Amino acid sequence: MTTNDNEATKKMNPIAMLDMDITGKLSEREPSAMADEWLDGTLLGSLYPDIKLALLTVPACVDDAEKSLVQDRMCSITWPIEGGTKYKMIGASGSAKNGKFYFADEAHVARVKQRFLNWPEAAITYLGIQTSGCKVVMTFKNAVVAIVPDLYFGTNDCQGWIRQSWAEKMKLTPGHIYQCREAFDITLMGGFIVGTQTKGLRKVMTDDVADKLGVDMIIPESSVKPLPTKKVTTLKEGKLVTEQVADLPECDAENLTSRRYTSDVVVGVRAISGVLKFSSSYSILQHASFEVINNEILPKAIPVVRALKEAWDTKNHFKVLEMIGKRLSFEVLEDESTAVVQEEEDGEVEGYRAVECILLADGSGEITRHPYIHQTLSKLMTKWAYKLGTGGGLDLPGFMLAADGYLAEVDGKVVSGSNWLPLDTAIVSDALTCDRGLCCRYPVRCAEDLLPMKHADLAATVALLIERGIPADKASWIAEHQLCLQGTYTLHQDTAKRNGGDFDGDMICVIDGDRYPMFTEQRFTMTERPAVKKIKAERLKSMWYNLESIAMGAMGNQIGRITNLISSCIAADRNELVYEPLCPELQKEIDSLKHNTCADKRVLQGISDQVKPPLWLDLKKATSLNQLPLFLEVLPTDRVGYCYNVLRAEIDLMMGTPMQVSQFAGLIVGNTPTHEMFEECRFIKTVHFAGHQQFRERSNKEAARVKQAKEELDRAKKSDDKDAIRKAYNSCKKANNAQKLGQDWCTAKTRTLGKIIATWAASKHTNRKAWAQAMHKLVHNSKSTFSTGSLGIHAFAQEFVDAMVERTGGIRSIVATPKVLGEVVLENKNELWLYAPGRPKVRVLKYHSETNTITR
């Protein structure tokens, strides 16, 4: 078996990031050299190294004319507009609901279409398999893949096997389960060769077992997206040809010969199982009784608040971060007193990485009064306070949901099993020691979704396998290497389906029965209502020319609205509305794209008219503790509101007021920056200020338009003129849409500007301390009360941390920074240019001093 990870030879492949406005006009976001804007690390980039890809963001439309215009424009786009590449849509990923769709150059469209069998609904649903970023991507030449019906050879719903030597070559940590993406070719009966892609969890089978079966991978049919059908579109002599062919051949449970395919296989590993900490949520707390809240949840939550207050008052920043900075984990290395800060995948963490490291580096206890640090901590503290108040602070360990399949050699024969676990039993690893608990998967639709489970540890799992007739020594090996995997929670398929779970990487959390015995007992003894089932309606199979229309229909969903309605009904003790119709409507919306279902908006509106939302639902976006009221008027039946009022009274942290940024100007010294360094840093500071001023102006303009539209609507309502009211409603809707578009635009522009500046700073490879000092001096010499000093921290975060350690004696930490694939340099005194491998140099920013604005 040979492999090729292509690291040395592959072409660097960027994605064009495009926006379309309501008139169909295209614009490109300023490109940066950040890895998330490149195809490296994706299956698509490995399959088609020469492909040109564009990610187009389209606006939400209010009326039919707008929808028609945008949809027409989506049929074919050219970028750059003059003499550029012609792109056509090829599909979407999970971000389709946000109006983000992928386009490819015409030369590659036919090949991508063929991989989805010329099926537009499949391309909209599953293209993300090829475009999602992976930790490892590797190509295995002339590999043998078997596609089997689910439950054959220890497979299950999206869970299959890879051989051990593959895992070793990809340097995967043993003892885990892996969320994978794969792409390869299969030959159907009749000799038709089609490309396909698969997704799901993969366990490791030994090479001995793989050799006996004559395979390198075993993939269940449920992993193949889409599974080939009788009507297959293939590429022949450069043209797409649709013909009738047979399905995949029958699969013998004892013989894989008819289902083995030899092909080059691209394997991407997207995630590896591990124990996580989930934040508690009101969608769980609302199912706890008042007795559980008063006797079990609040007695544990109140000491947590007091511990945080003590840590804050004593300037124990490590403890503060441990409690409110749960997105990052810290490991202090004893030999060099350095904390390694692990990078999270969630993009929201970007602004917190440096701040958390700076807090560790602060030996004086005063850095919390730095304006930017204070501002960021306030947001973190507020988010923590809201989650604690409305979630009760439950300690919820998180795991990757896994199936109970095993595949091993016993007495010279290959044995396997699937769906053999008792329905009330979960296999757990050493991280979970309680005998029973509640398995939770988001979104939590109703109390029945908190699955009451008995837990089987390694010894109990071995005993269960022995009961199935497996010898003790082999049962012990299977339990350790294929079932009790680190960071996993293993269920029978029918049990997982009860709260909507399958085995393609779903994460669950557990209410520990030892830590919360009353809550657990409440659920174990509850009388259950019939379970909510997925609606397995037949999937639509449209013609490819409907792709743009299907894409427009995929935008937006009602999941958030329905979950809020469920919480409102539970708070008002209207549980009958939760079970019928809200839970079925929520499941329809969850299944909407895959199974052509959607929630009935009239039903949802009818419930909205009946039930008033609790006040705490409106506090999600608070950014400071002052925006969280000390007391809320709530209904006597509102358990979440009751918990909030008790805990909010305990959270009276006084963070104090920040100092002026100039009071930190002397932090970085002794590095002798040059005049040229000061001049270039001054330009970056000017660009940073001008850009943010432009973004604020647009945001303010859209807010004023919304205000005016609401005032016009109020006047129309008073007139009782139905025609005027209808027009005012439409104007108000358009204004709100425009404001959302403006907010999204400002957010995207802010992030892009930050990436450009971060890449510029990363391009300074020599004398970085002097560069950091120059930027620090310019930013921190400001007397403005509005200046936060964020630019100096974002540009040279590690240097800021190192200076803190040198000056205050704190703990040095390594700042996790985004991967950069190129350089941004200053040219012509007012332009920033991007130099990146695989593309010509491009201007990303130009500053116009006469108008104090920035453009491409």
Question: What is the element layout, followed by pairings?
Answer:
Elements: E1 3-4, E2 15-20, E3 26-28, H1 43-47, E4 53-57, H2 64-74, E5 77-79, E6 85-92, E7 100-105, H3 106-115, H4 120-126, H5 128-131, E8 136-148, E9 159-163, H6 164-169, E10 178-187, E11 193-205, H7 207-213, E12 217-220, E13 231-236, E14 239-244, E15 260-272, E16 276-278, H8 282-285, H9 290-313, H10 317-324, E17 330-333, E18 338-341, H11 350-361, H12 371-391, E19 396-403, E20 406-410, E21 413-417, E22 425-428, E23 436-440, E24 451-456, H13 458-467, H14 472-483, E25 488-491, H15 493-497, E26 507-512, H16 517-524, H17 547-554, H18 559-571, H19 575-590, H20 592-595, H21 601-610, H22 639-650, H23 675-719, H24 722-762, H25 768-780, H26 790-795, H27 797-808, E27 812-814, E28 823-827, E29 831-835, E30 842-848, E31 853-855
Parallel strand pairs: 2-4, 8-12, 9-11, 18-27, 19-25, 22-24
Antiparallel strand pairs: 1-8, 2-3, 4-7, 5-6, 6-7, 8-15, 9-12, 10-11, 10-15, 13-14, 16-19, 17-18, 19-26, 20-21, 22-25, 23-24, 23-26, 28-29, 29-30, 30-31
